[in-house]
Amino acid sequence: DSKGVQFETADKDFKFRLGGRIHTDATFSGGDHDLVNAKGNTVGADDGTEIRRARMEMLGTFYQDWDFKSQFDFADNKVAVKDLFVQYSGLKDLEITAGQQKQAFSRELQESSNDMLFMERSLMNALNEPTVDRAIGLDVGSFQKDWTAQVGVFGDTVTPNNTNNIGQEGWAISSRATYAPINEKTKVIHLGVAGNYRDPSANGEVNGHNLQLRSETTHMSNLYLIDTGAISNVSSIKMAGLEATGLYGPFTVGGEYTHMWLDRENGSQNAEFDGWYTEAAWTITGESRKYKKGKFYKVEPKNNFSFKNGTWGAWELATRYSQADLNSGIIHGGEMSNITVALNWYLNDNIRFMADYNKFFSLTNTPITTVGGGEPNVDVFMLRSQLAF
Amino acid sequence: DSKGVQFETADKDFKFRLGGRIHTDATFSGGDHDLVNAKGNTVGADDGTEIRRARMEMLGTFYQDWDFKSQFDFADNKVAVKDLFVQYSGLKDLEITAGQQKQAFSRELQESSNDMLFMERSLMNALNEPTVDRAIGLDVGSFQKDWTAQVGVFGDTVTPNNTNNIGQEGWAISSRATYAPINEKTKVIHLGVAGNYRDPSANGEVNGHNLQLRSETTHMSNLYLIDTGAISNVSSIKMAGLEATGLYGPFTVGGEYTHMWLDRENGSQNAEFDGWYTEAAWTITGESRKYKKGKFYKVEPKNNFSFKNGTWGAWELATRYSQADLNSGIIHGGEMSNITVALNWYLNDNIRFMADYNKFFSLTNTPITTVGGGEPNVDVFMLRSQLAF
Amino acid sequence: DSKGVQFETADKDFKFRLGGRIHTDATFSGGDHDLVNAKGNTVGADDGTEIRRARMEMLGTFYQDWDFKSQFDFADNKVAVKDLFVQYSGLKDLEITAGQQKQAFSRELQESSNDMLFMERSLMNALNEPTVDRAIGLDVGSFQKDWTAQVGVFGDTVTPNNTNNIGQEGWAISSRATYAPINEKTKVIHLGVAGNYRDPSANGEVNGHNLQLRSETTHMSNLYLIDTGAISNVSSIKMAGLEATGLYGPFTVGGEYTHMWLDRENGSQNAEFDGWYTEAAWTITGESRKYKKGKFYKVEPKNNFSFKNGTWGAWELATRYSQADLNSGIIHGGEMSNITVALNWYLNDNIRFMADYNKFFSLTNTPITTVGGGEPNVDVFMLRSQLAF
Q: Is 0.95 exceeded by the ipTM?
């Protein structure tokens, strides 16, 4: 069916599923023709077409209690190991997950790219992506109908640490708890809180790289309007996150906030950054988005698109305002806001087309300026064809 | 069955198939011991064994009208995204395909490597491979029994454009039409015509690279007897292609021609190149090759090879003469002919063994010469074991 | 079932199976804080977490006699083609295998990483891994109940030879024969002998690299206590291997020995290296390991682990002593011993947890010393979570 190929034995002890996703994008940038970076070099946004995601996945259950997921991305002709873990669910109310997985932090990060309201995550993700995205570790979680709680201890990502003879990889503890005081099919209040502590590797790297917070205008533009550059001498990272979202019939309104404290050593100044977003969505055709275990999922159209039957699937309008502040002391990563407007067309459970318009504004102390030293005025129009199963 | 693993729901709304191919080659080159390149360095042909193709693919249909194909190649321990697209076939007589796919040009290019008469494509492919092979785009086609017509607009390939801040990717329009005035099971006349227009990227690249036309003596030889080197200042590429093939019982005779016009800017001289081939095949065991929607497919043996039953599968003899002229003005890519003789053994629908002999001759103005400045006299013997499903 | 997804047609002419494995490791090294290499640079062991193996595989049978296997590893975000071959089993008592496969040499090398008693192979593998591991070739084997014999001719590995214009790839002949004078379910005597001859490529490379024998303390440590460096001017490699193992109920005792003779040209001195190990294992819960066609397989627990039923799977204790001598003439790769103690927990046919302790000692003429010039005293504790199907 729409979930790809699924099998199970009669006693349900063994299950197996093959899945995949293809996200194909095209982008059109404006306002990028008079930009220079801090060195005075001309920069601009690369536009064109891109396979944004090309993933295959195998999932399964062995002997009823042992689940696994293996998911690989081949976009850009490279391998990226995504989820790759074994999960034990044989204990009442507890799930233990070992392997590469997303760290417990931020609803926006936890939600699948197949389910997001927008083509890319918000400016706030400039803080989360290099720190609390997937890593190899052990997570213990309890996922109940109205609340979830998880805590995990993690090493670095799957990228090999391959030359330096510098000893220990970094490690982190991440924890997230959510609560839904109202949780009905068309009425939800979701609240969440998360914390992360990370100790970089012996040579100061986080997940195999120097810590660098930045945001690309689109995934293929190679234009980072805000960018801290590599931050050295990091001795520890602390992060806190807050989440609140309400759903009422076809409407969703919500937001998130992330704060990051950097402790630095060898005389380097400590730093603090933050980011947040607020978003609102309206399913024009009336469907409600789904909520389950602390995450939102995309709408399922009441009537699939069919040329023959004259039915049109589900249509959704969404807008988001987001901001990140990467200025702190002598680190001038820049502060910036952006607003996104999205029109999403859900043809059925497998196919979605997306059109996003993004405008960047209120830039302060950014590493990119106009030739005349002024504030850049960049916008982007993006299209996506999404197949997922 | 022989098509790998296939599933469908009872109402045929959902289908799914897993496939793959393994091509394992060995090559033996001759006449490559006294060669030098334009810089006077000794060059030669690398010989040995190679996994030529190692592909996995998933194909499927969702809600009857939405097809997808995802195909990845892992030969050489690298990822190459091959076909990766979503296709809508809910409109009468029209197929709309979005994603990475072959551009509409040349029967030889469109046909699968599983179906080709020879182990490698002809010298003509030196023009087609860097320009009209797979790219990310949107294609609209109509595929009828006796004719096909398609037109597509394309960006670049899946390779990321990742450093240069140079703005727009290139784009192209490709179109191909075929007609079969005779189209019976054992009697076919196939005619085709195709055109391509490509505008390179803002920094003059085609599909992520400077335009370079060349032909390797075998896929693993690293010996390019004809090679234009990187051609700079390309402002546009126009290409035209002609096809004609006839099939009569176990016999096939056909050929193709490609002409390329390069417009160049910044005072560089325009250029013109062309290439062509003619081929003939005879299925000794009497089977006819298949023809469908403007493409030829490999023979299916009447009797599969079986040691026990004393049956031997299908045997096929084929020969090809091909030529490419990469000399134009001050560009001395070289002109060359080659002749190929092939013996193919089809054991069943999944297994084929191939033996090819290739001889290169009539070299004019090539970048590779003998030490004495003379014309190289290179030949290659190649073996392949092919599994495909 | 536990073997992943399997299909076959009613007449068993076609079969298909999807499989995979996920090995996730964590390591903790000691005694690596005062080490320097031959250049006087400080070195140490990298510790942390790692996806050791992330493999997907497709296997199948076409028309009863034609098997294939395709297996890819995506750990470290890279592609590594593992097994990739077509096999013909239509001849009585003979199996012919074409493609990338392990060369016929050494039981330890032939056995799957899913079945090994220890997380990593022994120090002896420093000799085998760069020479007789997977390569592209043609193998002919006969696998009977009590004996096996195989011989193959091989080229290089799947890695492309991509720049040098140096002519021929290397080639090799490998052969292994095993005999089991006693072969019952809980009583086995296994004997084996193997030989390998390899001719390097025209530029002296073996499988795409200069020959370099070395051993990493763990797969992610980047610490090689013994290491010959690149050995040049190799004109031929000869290797011999001996194997003997006995199984009695829950006990296994065995060992292997490999000797290597290097012939070198251009006035370089010939060299000889060797390595060996002996190992003993005890399945505490009483199960016997499996023996089939010259290889041992992991135990299958009598009672799978189940929290509800209070059953605990199978537990196994194992220890190994191994040694490699990479000193010969002016080559000072070092001589070293190590001892490994392992505790393995088999929860069911798919899940295994492993804990290994490794201690390295008796180092002579190694390229790594303590800062004071003394003998390093390194040990490692390693954990693995293994899912395989």
A: no
